[in-house]
Amino acid sequence: MAKITASVYTSHVPAIGAALDLGKSGEPYWQPVFKGYDFSKQWLAENKPDVIFLVYNDHATAFSLEMIPTFAIGTAAEFTPADEGWGPRPVPKVIGHPELAAHIAQSVIQQDFDLTIVNKMDVDHGLTVPLSLMCGQPQAWPCPVIPFAVNVVQYPVPSGRRCFELGKAIRKAVESFDKPLKVQIWGTGGMSHQLQGPRAGLINKEFDNAFLDQLIADPEGLASKPHIDYVREAGSEGIELVMWLIARGAMSDVACGPAPKVAHRFYHVPASNTAVGHLILENK
Q1: Model-level pTM?
Q2: CB neighbours of 30 closer than 8 A, spacing ≥ 6?
Q3: Do 130 and 188 touch, CB atoms closer than 8 A?
Q4: CATH no. for residue 26?
Q5: Percent of the chain predicted with pLDDT > 70
Q6: Residue-level pLDDT at 187
């Protein structure tokens, strides 16, 4: 049967992708950011999954304000990098895994979570920047990727509890797939940042690091954090962090297994006007 071997958590700051694409990753401003992922690239090469289930949010690219699904799973055979206004990123197209994606959709919907099935969509920086941070600039991504888009752009957005419980349902779905696949689940977005208004540029190091601590040690408690805490403490875009709870809810310890191993943890400010957080947890 398939199994989830690890979860990966990372910010998906668009300026990081631009810095990489324009050859600026070695500049003094950007070097510390990319150095924080040196371990991760090697780790991924040594722990290559068969499939990555990547949780991210679309930034009004595949879904406009005319139609915003709360949870959407990509079931296509491939996904093209999106043009977000300055041309598509020069990165490989994303190869999907329609068979596993369809199985997860079937299982999760039968567990009473409503998913939108997406058979065709482009994927923006929310998905491609995490892949670039973890993989560098390859000719092709190392394995198929299942995109899973979450609405954290237009209220109402799903609660942390809802996301955490969804992660549990995804784990059950993966473990009921009858092929011996090694699956990683990635949660992306955040950390603290606000892009507009009087608090634009807000970064809250204390909140971010406390979030990482609790994500590791007490995800059940963290799932109860209300939206207002994210907005007040981490800025209007800090709500993206609820997506990390989907990945955390899919780990074995949540289902009475052993605590995960912290393989890597990294935090840096700033990258553009955002705090960058990164964590790798391995199932034992």
Answers
A1: 0.97
A2: 16, 19, 24, 271
A3: yes
A4: 3.40.830.10
A5: 100
A6: 98
Q: What is the pLDDT of residues 23-78, one digit of tens each?
A: 999 999 999 999 999 999 999 999 999 999 999 999 999 998 899 999 999 999 99
Q: Do the Cβ atoms of 136 and 85 come closer than 8 Å? A: no
Active-site residues: which are they? 125, 193
Nearest-angstrom CA–CA distance, 144 and 124: 16
Element at 221 (helix H, strand E):
helix 219-222
Is residue 90 reached through a cis peptide bond, with omega within 30 degrees of 0 on the bond before it? no
Chain-centroid distance, C-alpha 15: 17
3-class DSSP state of 49: coil
Is the CB of residue 278 less than 8 Å from the CB of residue 7?
no
Residues 192-212 pLDDT 10s: 999 999 999 999 999 999 999
Distance CA 164, CA 254 (A): 10
Range of the structural domain that residue 181 is part of: 3-282
Distances (CA, A) of 4 to 31, 49, 86, 125, 247: 32, 9, 36, 24, 10
Token pair of 1 as six digits: 């049967």
Cα–Cα distance for residue pair 32/19, rounded to 1 Å: 12
What pLDDT shows up at residue 110?
98
Measured on CA atoms in the order 240, 53, 176, 219, is the torsion positive or negative? negative
Q: How many domains does the chain have?
A: 1
Nearest alpha carbon to residue 130 among 3, 7, 269, 262 = 7
| Residue 215 pLDDT level (bands cut at 50, 70, 90) | very high
Percent of the chain with pLDDT over 90: 98
Q: H-type helices in 49-189, by residue range?
A: 98-110, 125-135, 160-175
